[in-house]
Amino acid sequence: MKNFEFEPPYYAVIFTSQRNSVELGYAEMADRMVELAAQQTGYLGVESVRGADGLGITVSYWRGLQDIAAWRRQGEHEQARNQGRADWYSHYALRIAKVERAYGWDAADGSADPMLASRG
Amino acid sequence: MKNFEFEPPYYAVIFTSQRNSVELGYAEMADRMVELAAQQTGYLGVESVRGADGLGITVSYWRGLQDIAAWRRQGEHEQARNQGRADWYSHYALRIAKVERAYGWDAADGSADPMLASRG
Q: Is this complex scored with an ipTM above 0.85?
């Protein structure tokens, strides 16, 4: 994950969600939120996966807690969250976590454990 | 996520991985690691999703850093990680993060923002 190699500490927002079967408007909202988040101060990146059963995990990375709070107050984001609860999700969990250590590995690096290697 | 409602602080291990096309042995290893993790001291739970494109996010939750370190030293887990680098992954990132705040929402709770509600 070359594009996420930031030096800790930084913050992760872990959003685990179960989608219901309502498709109308969801994909457009999800794309728009990724686009909008990337414009916010302190945004570092996002990783997002949804499985065939509708369970999804999105982790967004931020420089500081104040950046997360500002993104939370962003008007279009707030509206999307409200619509999410009304229309698109069955349940979700949201966790705010401070990343203390981070390691990356790529097959091109060979098979050694990256946690045992010294990193710059 | 009723089964993850633990009071912070606790720890999250965020494992984001890109699978290659080698299927042999992968599913069995993944199931076994979930089973084995659940037997470790300090294990709180796991959330895991893999998309059709092979990108996956697994977040496991632990009471403390010492529990994560012990799980890391577990022999069968270490062997699985080594095989993962040799056989199953193109690249991955691993982050260890301290969960400072956690919120849950379920459609049965109504549409109010859980971050605005007081929680016990």
A: yes
Q: Is B32 near chain A, with CB under 8 Å? A: no
- Touching check for B86 and chain A: CB below 8 Å? yes
* Entry field: residues in chain B: 120
Q: How far apart are CA A59 and CA A64, in angstroms?
A: 15
- Predicted pLDDT of residue B1: 43
pTM of this structure: 0.93
Residues with Cβ within 8 Å of residue B64, at least 6 apart in sequence? B10, B11, B42
Q: What are phi and psi of B99, to 5 degrees?
A: -75, 120
For the segment A31-89, what is each residue's pLDDT rounded down to a tens digit?
999 999 999 999 999 999 999 999 999 999 999 999 999 999 999 999 999 999 999 99
Enumerate the H helices of chain B as residue ranges. Answer: 26-37, 65-73, 75-83
CB B104 to CB A111 under 8 A? Answer: no
Cα dihedral sign, B89-B95-B99-B105 = negative
> In this complex, do A101 and B81 lie within 8 Å of one another by their Cβ atoms?
no
Residue with tokens 């999250």: B12
Question: By the CB < 8 Å criterion, does B85 face chain A?
Answer: yes
Check residue B120 and give its pLDDT. 39
Does the CB of B92 have a partner CB in chain A at under 8 Å?
A: yes
Phi/psi class of residue A85: alpha, beta or left (left: φ > 0; alpha: ψ in -120 to 50)?
A: alpha
